């Protein structure tokens, strides 16, 4: 893999506005009843007037060791040289193994195509044109950083090297490529 695309979500900069969700819907023709990405808002935490929320991005984690790809009997779920976990609709037989295998529970059945779907970093549209994913470009607070982590001069590499970050469910060995900069506020203090 020559490129290693990753996304960083800064929980301190995110305001839960859902602009990323709206841009994704528009760019990828996502039907209203489902979503490729969303920001879940948790809270409020703390005591008035010092209340705060936690903003958790929910989307495909673009696993390097993707369980959804391993269980696909037809190769419809696959990873190309770009490292992006993708779906070939023409090869899909609708077995739903990939949906069941995703430990992040982010795959869904597109009600129009009847094929599993999920975030693919706008691979066929914006990335193909040399642009960043739609969610990244519309974020009003620059809470999202995207790029090639193998490029030591990229903004995303600099963020990963200088800011504390974490990945979800690393204990599963999936090696997710969505990183998070943890909220400095934390949860409820006893």
Automatic annotation (TrEMBL):
InterPro entries: 4Fe4S_Fe-S-bd, 4Fe4S_Fe_S_CS, ET_IronSulfur_Cluster-Binding. It comes from the Bacteria. Keywords: 4Fe-4S, Iron, Iron-sulfur, Metal-binding. Signal peptide: none annotated. Transmembrane segments: none annotated. Residues 5-34, 51-82, 83-112 form the 4Fe-4S ferredoxin-type domain. This is 4Fe-4S dicluster domain-containing protein.
């Amino acid at each position: 893999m020559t490129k290693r695309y990753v996304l960083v979500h800064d929980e301190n900069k995110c305001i839960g506005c859902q602009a990323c969700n709206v841009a994704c819907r528009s760019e990828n023709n996502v039907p209203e009843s489902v979503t490729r990405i969303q920001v879940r808002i948790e809270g409020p935490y703390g005591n008035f007037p010092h209340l705060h929320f936690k903003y958790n991005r929910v989307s495909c984690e673009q696993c390097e060791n993707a369980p959804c790809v391993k269980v696909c009997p037809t190769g419809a779920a696959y990873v190309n040289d770009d490292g992006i976990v993708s779906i070939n609709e023409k090869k899909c037989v609708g077995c739903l193994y990939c949906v069941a295998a995703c430990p992040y529970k982010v795959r869904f059945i597109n009600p129009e195509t009847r094929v599993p779907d999920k975030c693919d970093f706008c691979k066929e549209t914006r990335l193909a044109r040399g642009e960043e994913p739609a969610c990244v470009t519309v974020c009003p607070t620059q809470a999202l950083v995207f790029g090639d982590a193998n490029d030591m001069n990229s903004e995303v590499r600099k963020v990963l090297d200088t800011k504390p970050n974490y990945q979800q469910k690393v204990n599963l060995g999936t090696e997710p490529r969505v990183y998070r900069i943890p909220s400095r506020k934390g949860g409820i203090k006893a």
